[in-house]
Amino acid sequence: MNTTSAAVAGAVTFLWLGMVLAISFLEAPLKFRAPGVTIQIGLGIGRMVFRALNLVETALAVIVVAAVATATPSTAVVTLTAITLAVLAGQLAVVRPRLNRRFDTVLAGEDPARHRSRAHLYYVALELVKVLSLLTLGCAVLAR
């Protein structure tokens, strides 16, 4: 990859990684421990935060793809970019709609303990894969 494309792809990849780590693995679990935050309030906040995160992630993904596409990337960079995009697409197209339906039922007053959903676990598993792919992609892009 040329220097400019590598710098842009690396910077954006690590920015994206930092956002995912900060929101998914720090903010999300901590908000439920704050005094006075009920499950309904926490879910309402979470829905807004993750909607914003996913919009920003989509924009960052477009920038990474553009930077990679304008260079001569290695097979590893192309593969890692594809994995990262596939994970994000899976979260947005498959898991988020399920989570939104679940949030709607809980926000409408259903006891969350009454009916457990695995959608949250799938989202977290995909977040872990995304973190690993972003970390590896960032390193691969900057290694040239």
Brief summary of the model shown:
The chain is mainly α and 144 residues long. The chain has helices at 3-31, 39-69, 75-107, 119-143. It has 4 helices and no strands.
Overall description:
It is a single chain. By secondary structure, this protein is mainly α. The protein has one domain (3-143). The protein is built from four helices and no strands. The protein has helices at residues 3-31, 39-69, 75-107, 119-143. α1 (3-31) packs antiparallel against α4, α2 runs antiparallel to α3 (75-107) and α3 (75-107) packs antiparallel against α4. The relative contact order is 0.17.
> SSE order in H/E notation?
HHHH
Q: How many strands appear in the DSSP assignment?
A: 0
- Mean pLDDT figure: 92
H/I helix tally: 4
Poorly predicted runs are none
Question: Biggest β-sheet: count, sense, barrel?
Answer: none
Helical content (DSSP H or I, runs of 4+): over 70%
Overall SS class? mainly alpha
